[in-house]
Every structure is written in structure tokens, then in C-alpha cells.
Design goal:
single chain, about 250 residues, alpha/beta, TIM Barrel, 8-stranded parallel β-barrel, binds SN-glycerol-3-phosphate, binds magnesium ion
Length: about 250
């Protein structure tokens, strides 16, 4: 099995959903703030529109994080392009667009931010989302180091692996199942990502023995992050990028 590696070294901290709690989630403003705070890497969520284009959004519906309504997968690009994804967080962010994957990739590259692109398929669109996101990632980061691409959906990861064999993949679980190692190996994935609350030391020791980095979400206190690093966790995703520092 050839396990595609990262062309960049894992940082200790990824800003969660672009800029953590310091910006509206999954926005370009978040990327700018993460870079300004000295973060080396960010995580964001990507879902397909009704036109099959990848956009940065976490929920299947638009209401919580924008002034739009309805399901992302039933909304056309022309509508998504006109949405405000900032005002819900604070009036200072009014006018912040809902970013396409392309706009996020361009800005990450400009700012020198490494990325963990989380494929977040709407139900029923797992394979298509994995395939489209993987292909776009390869195109958008051409000539640069590829991001780490992760998902809770094994179907999406399988599609990504088939579409772009050289892509470094991370397998996401809330709580790793008994056979997590077999699943990670079957996908030739690089890393295991899980909820920090559900990580036990047997998973960590088997990950260490097999050379698989473990990354944990969502860690918002410095003490908790340091305890995880002492246990062998390689990196955390954090909303509190003002407190949980890299290095
Ligand atoms: O990728 C880590 C983390 O983002 C997974 O949870 O729900 O915030 O996407 P969620
Ligand atoms: Mg995520």
C-alpha cells in the first residue's frame, strides 16, 4: 500500500472552520484572521451546490450561517454567490460572501496557509462530493503542496481516492470504531481524526505503532490541547486560536 504523504509538516493547531470563533465560520474573513494570528493551517467544510460546485459550508441547510434558506444541495450557484455569510455572526462582518472552494484555495495560497479540506457531503451525495472536491483540490493547488482531505464519509473518501490517487486523506470519526486501522489502511489514508472526547489510549498506541498521526477536534483550551499532545496527539482543531497556540 502506498500511503500519500503530506508535502508540509503538520502544525500543532488548525483553525477550525477557517478562523475559529474569531470570525464567521467557513469564510474568507476567517482565513485572513487565522493568518494574522500566526496560524499555519486551517480546516474548512465543503459541500456541493445544486450545480455540483463546491462551497464552504458546514450544515446541509443555509439558515444558521447565512441569510439564505433551504438545502445547499438544492441551491444554485447564482443564489449562493449573492448570500451574506457574515452578518449572522456580527454586523462588522456584513457583506462577507459564502466562499467557493476556489476562492478559499486562492486565498489560502496567497496567505501561505496549509489546509485540511473536510468533504461534507449532503445525504445522498457522498460519492459525487468526494469525486468533485478531490478533482478541484488537485486543480486549485497545482504547483503547490496538496491539502489534507478528510471526511466522516468513507464513501466520499473512496471516491476522492479513486479520482486523485495521490491525495493525502484523513479518516474522521466521532469515536474510532474497533476496526479503524483496517479502514484507514484500506483507503491508504494518512491520518486518523476524531473527537477529543472519544479518544482512548489504545487507539493512540496502535496509531503510533503504525505511524498514523492522530488529529483531534474541537479543542478550545490550551491545557486540554497540551494534555492531548503529551498523550501523543499530533494536532488539534480549535475555535479558540487566540488561546490554543501553535508551537
Ligand atoms: O474536521 C474536524 C471537524 O471540523 C469535524 O467536525 O462538525 O466541525 O466539521 P465539524
Ligand atoms: Mg469540519
Amino acid at each position: 500500500m502506498i500511503r500519500p504523504r503530506l508535502g508540509w509538516s503538520l502544525p500543532r493547531v488548525f483553525a477550525h472552520r477557517c478562523g475559529g470563533a474569531l470570525a464567521p465560520e467557513n469564510t474568507l474573513a476567517g482565513l485572513r484572521i487565522a493568518a494574522r494570528m500566526g496560524l499555519r493551517a486551517v480546516e474548512f467544510d465543503v459541500m456541493l451546490s445544486a450545480d455540483g460546485s463546491p462551497w464552504l459550508v458546514h450544515d446541509e441547510r443555509l439558515e444558521r450561517t447565512s441569510d439564505g434558506s433551504g438545502r445547499v444541495c438544492e441551491t444554485r450557484d447564482a443564489t449562493l454567490r449573492g448570500l451574506d455569510a457574515g452578518a449572522h455572526r456580527h454586523p462588522a462582518f456584513r457583506g462577507e460572501p459564502l466562499p467557493s472552494l476556489e476562492s478559499a484555495a486562492v486565498l489560502c495560497r496567497q496567505l501561505g496557509l496549509m489546509a485540511n479540506v473536510e468533504i461534507k457531503p449532503a445525504a445522498g451525495f457522498e460519492f459525487l462530493t468526494g469525486e468533485v472536491v478531490a478533482r478541484q483540490v488537485r486543480e486549485l493547488w497545482v504547483g503547490a503542496e496538496l491539502p489534507l482531505v478528510s471526511s466522516f464519509s468513507e464513501e466520499a473518501l473512496l471516491a476522492a481516492r479513486e479520482a486523485v490517487p495521490e491525495l493525502p486523506l484523513g479518516v474522521l470519526y466521532e469515536s474510532p470504531p474497533e476496526d479503524w486501522l483496517t479502514r484507514v489502511n484500506d483507503l491508504a489514508a494518512l491520518s486518523l481524526h476524531c473527537d477529543a472526547e472519544h479518544l482512548d489510549d489504545s487507539v493512540l498506541s496502535s496509531a503510533r505503532a503504525n505511524g498514523i498521526p492522530v488529529l483531534c477536534y474541537t479543542v478550545n483550551e490550551l491545557g486540554a490541547a497540551e494534555a492531548l499532545f503529551r498523550r501523543g496527539v499530533m494536532a488539534v482543531f480549535s475555535d479558540r486560536i487566540d488561546c490554543v497556540r501553535d508551537g
